[in-house]
Design a protein that fits this description.
160 residues; alpha+beta; 7-stranded mixed beta sheet; globular
């Protein structure tokens, strides 16, 4: 298994994004309406990763710079987007590997906090993030007014 940075509009990223949108529809009745642009995931603004087994894309995730305090973000935030593992590859630790790589990349880019929004219909995501040191925080972003929304954060800076 190899984790590679790709553009968000790379054909494999588009394929995995289609699958994650189908997952959201199955769980919530609708896809994620967050507007995303490939440039949001281009260094130094962020990065987008895909885990491959040979030529087959199995998992994905990205982070993008956030500074919009009007939507509840803080200066220095890096927001996780599109974390997803294809069903047949789940349970192998791929999401944890992608998450660790995203955290390391955001830290290297000078980001101070990793944030994410997930929902009550994704208990495995809530468990992954909680077990990786993320804690619930005040809601932010597009879905901050939705009851099902859960926002989490983790510091990327070492305690002094």
């Amino acid at each position: 298994m190899e984790i590679r940075p790709v553009r968000y509009d790379h054909p494999d990223a588009v394929t995995l994004d289609t699958l994650v949108q189908q997952e959201y529809v199955r769980r919530y009745g609708d896809g994620d309406m967050t507007p995303l642009d490939p440039e949001m995931f281009t260094p130094p603004h962020g990065t987008y990763l895909i885990a491959y087994e040979g030529a087959r894309p199995l998992a994905t995730g990205g982070w993008r710079r956030q500074e919009d305090t009007a939507e509840g973000y803080a200066a220095g935030d890096a927001e996780i987007k599109r974390m997803f593992v294809v069903p047949e590859a789940r349970g192998q630790g791929l999401a944890r590997q992608i998450l660790a790589a995203l955290e390391a990349d955001a830290r290297a880019a000078g980001r101070s906090r990793m944030v994410l929004e997930t929902g009550t219909e994704q208990p495995e995501a809530l468990e992954l993030y909680a077990s990786s040191g993320y804690v619930l925080v005040g809601k932010f972003g597009l879905y901050r007014t939705y009851d099902e929304s859960r926002c989490m954060a983790k510091s990327l800076v070492a305690d002094v």
